[in-house]
Specification:
This protein is mainly α. The protein folds into 2 domains: 138 residues, no CATH class; 66 residues, no CATH class. 69% of the residues lie in helices and 0% in strands. The protein contains 11 helices and no strands. The longest helix has 30 residues.
Length: 230
């Protein structure tokens, strides 16, 4: 009997499916039984239950904010909401409504903050920059690999980072790589080439080699010296 995967699995089930029968992973890790999938699904479900309990309390705190609430408290709640969006992206099931609620609450808080800066041009620009960065961060968290890698209890261990990257579809690999800085990308490219050269010297794993080439291309393109640099 084959265990069907969830329509939208959480990060633990995702990683179990990523490993299953995948030649890029160690043999013991690629042998993912139905029981392993069920266990991963259970852990994802437990995280969902815990999240919803905490999220309801957080939403109530946000709703209860008063105009005279200290700014430290307001910023603390906004930071918690930002974190909740990241958490929601890692959960199983369709969390669209939860993420929309978070965005609406954050936008309401940002409007209140903006109304209190008294036309301060510098503060206004800082708020715009923060909003742009938050939108980009939220967008990246929608990528399954990113939500798994940035989770505080990521199911992707350090020794499985390279196999996971080389297993990622090319259309989502490129944006997922933006979470790494120049130094990290350089190391990842070197480690990935060494990994594949040892694992697959005959280059039978065509897709993995193409993803390595994409990684190296992205690294070189994004870190070329700009005109005027010395």
């Amino acid at each position: 009997m084959r265990a069907e995967s969830s329509e939208k699995p959480g990060i633990r089930e995702q990683h179990a499916l990523r490993r299953r029968n995948n030649p890029l992973f160690d043999e013991t890790r690629r042998n993912v039984a139905n029981e392993d999938l069920a266990s991963a699904r259970l852990d994802d479900g437990l995280e969902l239950d815990h999240f919803m309990e905490e999220f309801q309390l957080l939403v109530q705190r946000a709703i209860d904010l008063k105009p005279n609430t200290p700014s430290e408290t307001v910023l603390e709640i906004k930071a918690a909401l930002d974190k909740s969006y990241q958490q929601a992206c890692a959960l199983p099931g369709d969390q669209t409504q939860v993420k929309q609620a978070i965005s609406q609450l954050v936008n309401a808080i940002m409007r209140a903050i903006r109304n209190g800066i008294d036309s301060d041009a510098l503060a206004e620009q800082e708020l715009e920059d923060e909003e742009t960065a938050r939108r980009a961060h939220f967008s990246l968290q929608e990528l399954p690999l990113v939500s798994a890698l940035t989770h505080p209890e990521s199911p992707i261990g350090e020794n499985e980072l390279i196999p996971s990257l080389l297993s990622e579809p090319e259309q989502t690999l490129a944006p997922s790589l933006t979470i790494f800085d120049k130094g990290q990308m350089e190391v990842l490219c070197e480690d990935a080439r060494a990994f594949l050269s040892q694992l697959d010297p005959d280059r039978a794993l065509d897709e993995a080699w193409r993803r390595l080439e994409l990684m190296e291309e992205i690294f070189h393109q994004s870190h070329q010296p700009q005109r005027g640099d010395h």
